[in-house]
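Practice problem 4.
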């Protein structure tokens, strides 16, 4: 079984390291100086990068949600009217009456 050090030595180093990793490596050098602002710097670096990467996706999701809410606002009243018409039609009562009569026949 390989030790962690052997694994690190055998792992190829990528030439194109993402900028977030470069930023975090730069912040990691401050650890030796006991920088009290280091956690804030790391959090801000990560949050800015995440915000840049996912802003278009979040915007598309918000637009899709707006479209769905608008469709719901226009279609829901009609659907509720259809449902009310179904309730008023008496089909439910007819179904229960039929079921009741069939059950009474079975019970005899």
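Answer key:
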């Amino acid at each position: 079984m390989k030790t962690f050090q052997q694994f690190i030595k055998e792992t190829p180093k990528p030439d194109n390291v993402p900028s977030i990793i470069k930023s975090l490596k730069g912040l990691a050098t401050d650890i030796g100086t006991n920088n009290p602002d280091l956690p804030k710097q790391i959090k801000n670096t990560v949050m800015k990068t995440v915000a840049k990467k996912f802003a278009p996706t979040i915007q598309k999701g918000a637009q899709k949600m707006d479209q769905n809410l608008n469709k719901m606002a226009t279609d829901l009243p009609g659907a509720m009217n259809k449902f009310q018409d179904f309730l008023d039609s008496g089909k439910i009562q007819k179904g229960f009456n039929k079921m009741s009569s069939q059950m009474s026949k079975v019970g005899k």
